[in-house]
User: Fold these one by one.
Assistant:
Number 1:
Amino acid sequence: MKIAVLSGKGGTGKTTVSTNLAYMMNINYVDLDVEEPNGHIFLKPQIESVKDVVIPTPKIDSEKCTLCGTCVNTCQFNALVNTGKKILVFEDLCHGCGACTLACPVGAITEYDRKIGDMSIGTFDKAKFYSGKMLLNEPMAGPIITDIKKSLPKDEDFIVDCSPGTSCNVVKALDGADYALMVTEPSKFGLHDLKLAVELVRELNIPLGIVINRANEYDHLIEGFAKEENVDIIGKIPFSKEAAKMYSEGRLLIENDEIREMFEMIKISVLDVVKEGNHAISNS
Amino acid sequence: MQLVILSGKGGTGKTTIVSCFAYLADPSSIKVDCDVDASNLHLMFNGKDIEEQAFTGSKKAIIDPNKCINCGLCSDVCRFDAIDKRESYYEVNELRCEGCNACRVVCPADAITLEEEDSGKKILTVLEDDSYLSRASLYPGADGSGKLISEIRKVSLELNKEKNKLIIIDGSPGIGCPVMSSITGVEYGLLVTEPTQSGFEDFIRAYELTKHFRVKSFVAINKYDLNYEMSEKIEEYCNEEGIKVIGKIPYDSVVNKSNFESKPLVMYNESIAGNEIKKMWDLLKIEMGV
């Protein structure tokens, strides 16, 4: 079971929902918001190992290179430039696809592993913790997300904390999820971005449910949309200064009994849908 | 002159603050919403879209099933697991394909082409005060936000050929490609943070990035009164780094009302946060010399 937590808008409470749910359900947590990973603040894991995340990057052997420019024409990311004397590699534009290496007619290109981030692996309470972190001044989060997903144990359950937005990085994190938990806030910004996120999840055919965080007198904004779109609101975490304070200190909100109850309900709703899905598949 | 508002962490109040600046700034100023996959600034204004242009950000491979000889070489070289085997041919998984060209290079049957993909649109909006807002909307799941951001910033620079106007840029969360694209060549930055452990950590990463890009940055601590201790920690850090904390905005429930009514917070005289943002804007103008 893979539960992806996403939002569209940033700062609505993805990490709050992911970490509290993971802790309560005793299920593995993976932080794929690799530009700004925060899950460790709340789960306080024991980190057991840190692994480099690398992408293969071309290196041009100037003795073999004939300056024919095939590599430059092949690269779709403008990562190679022919100065007439030399092929320059703009490493941070390279997607590590290997197309230039394949295209070079004289075998002048080899690849080396370039570090763009790292992955921490550890444990919290009774479950595993994975977190990716992109190096500063690196532009591409995508390869880190893909790499971490590949190294997760195949048959275990996970809560996947995605990055904000609805771009390709979120798609990479969502790929293969059994359920998408959409965390939003009752504001026009929250609603606008939730709509985009719902559109994306629907396109991927993933079952979904909405959690309203910092619920207040404007919840009807989200409720109206949910009704129209026929999406269940499976939980509401009311705004309180106490919860905000707990969050600010890096504490889990389920320390508070009322909020814990809310998370219990979210858990039941998610499991209901995921199990029903499994059932349907095994019957077919 | 260009000013970018950033945060690292999402949801710290960037757009709320930018909408106030946009309201307070001289109508000659140009606004750019660089948060292209969750653009919200236009929601705070009654603007009129005067131009819309399609944006093609990336390419996708397409395999012609009639030409495909089912050899599987494309699938072998694809590093994004984007090519699936079907019964008698191979097929591209569009969501995974990065349009890198590797499959086309190796295909012995010439069955693969790369085609440009419609990834979103660029929009030019005129606000109530006749000022321009250059913005975009990236289609959900699309690639190429960095390129799209460069393009909408280019629109703002073209509107400022005499270089005498202020350009106010609403950034996106994070520190990756879209953020780099939003801050390249920008003179001034306002980093909006909040007194939480997450906000603080993310702020440091965003600040490091602005430093690398030589953006002169100032700091605003939003909802500073939710955790005084953490606010102090942030201020201490800023002092050590020599960055000026230019505003400390209190928690204020009027923010919810202002958002719901789609009116910038500074329009509410009773808003304590709005008043602080006003003060901050005046200070920023002095710092920027505008």
Number 2:
Amino acid sequence: MPLLEVENLEVRYRTQAGEAKAVDGVSFVIEPGMCLGLVGESGCGKSTVAKAILGILPPAGHIAGGAIRYAGRDLGGMTPRELRAMRWRDIALVPQSAMNALDPVYTVESQLAEAIAAHQAMPAARRRGRIAELFELVGLEPDRARDYPHQFSGGMRQRAMIAMAMVLDPGLIVADEPTTGLDVLVQDQILRRIRDLHDRLGKAMLLITHDMAVVAENSDRIVVMYAGRVMEYGGEAVFRTPYHPYTLGLCNAFPDLAYRARALISIPGTPPNLVAPPEGCRFQARCPFATARCGTPPPLIEVAPGHVVACHHVDQAERFRERAADPETWREPAR
Amino acid sequence: MSRLAHAFSRRLLLLALTMWCILTILFALFRLLPGDPAAIFVDNNMSIEMIEHQKQLWGLNDPWWVQYIRYIANMALFRFGDSFFQNQTVAAILLEKITNTCAMIFPALVISVVLGTIIGAFAGWRRGGRLEQATVTTALILHSAPSFFVGILVLMVFSYQLRWLPPGGMTSPGGPEGFWDLITSADYLRHLILPCMVLVSREITGPVLLVRSSMLEIKGADFIDILRAKGLPEWRILVHATRNALLPLVTYIAVMTGLLLQGQVLLEIIFAWPGLGRELVTALADLDYQVAQGAVYVMALTILLLNLVADMLYGFIDPRSR
């Protein structure tokens, strides 16, 4: 049985302009011990997916359709009590901004201890032992546990958050852009810690990022999201032999992938308005290869076992890949 | 800890300096007032020699700087002299009046802060509900209602119409003597209810509005999401949020206490409460300079001390400012 199943998830936000469909029919599966990378640019709905899974959508947002199942149990059908019991014990979070993720007026230790206390009876001494152990695991000095968050650097806080995510030994860890706001060296250390948890401890992970390189290095399966929809879904092949023009653009925009020596190319334009999204393919307005057919909803085509692409033109992928490497292709704003 | 001690001694020095400035202004002010202090005790039967003798005795003929130094020294040692009209030392009068004022404001203060925090926290947490709107509107109305109006209104209803509670004073005639006997007596409580009620109705609005608005700010903080994701029960999350929302309240309470301690002139007059505010007004009207001077001094000192307390307390409750 898969650990986490997200099926046709739909999340909407109430805004002044109307309902924004932040997540529109997203599906994926995470097997035990697997790391799934969710990529896309800012505002594509990837953090909203994380929030929906964790049940911490802001008041303006709600799940409008679909299902999230953890170990076969639908989270939507749970009572608040059942939901609370499974939070953090089953699904924990390494948040986007460790800077503000810790309560400034409590010690780091007490905030970790609190997570334990909320789920299991454990004597205080054993709790402290557990926390010290986790601090070692993430590379923090156990003595520092009794410090307040402001006495930690950004990297230390993120390590503390990783320790916090591990405190109940959850089945799944959601890491939502875990390196935002950290400098490059620290980013690397944090990612290595996270990879460690995955490799050594066999934790299943949902790794959310805008950085194709990070996903390529860490994930077993990859979901590429754009404007609330899944564009491409598959294994390594997603970045080795991408089919969807958006994936190609995303690969171009980050260094250290297939074409190492090449200059970075960005995708011109901005994502569409989610209150009134365009008919058909959501990427059409920015896609250099768009045709009239793209005005109709694209089919989901399985190009290889387990590799699914939402594009009308998968048959031309070879040509797309060639042309996508040329900066000229992306130069003029399509349409 | 040594940093804390260092900060404390710095603040203390600053306080002494401020106090010295206030005293100097006070000294100048009372000497600039029209009239001769001697004129107050002079009556027609006194000879010029007697008047001169009395002035000599009180040091009024000394050069101003000798008077100034003597004045500063006396004030620093809380030697305020004797009242012109009441057969008591100023210190004794002030102590009694301050005690009486405290007997009225502290119950009101505690109720306002505790109740106000709870109401404000809930209002902020349940943002957007009808309850929250009602709370804010009520708080704004209570905050702007003048206490002489509210005071007279409750007197009219509860004392004159319903005759449930006494109209004023701290005790009934022949009530208990001595501070402890007094404040533990049912008689005092009955006298306290009305002024306390009026005071709470006004003072509670500060904590309510302040805690509500800082609660709104904290509710959107990332760490609240994390607490929720950790599966903590809602009340635990509320405790976290309130603890954060309380930070600005601490300073507010200290300032509020300082202002309240100056005496509630209007309330003390309406409810015939023998407190500090009423005493100051009476002393000024009677030209009892000694008492007035002492009262102003004590008020200034209280405000400064409470601000110091606020600063120090902040250091304890907010780890970031340690």
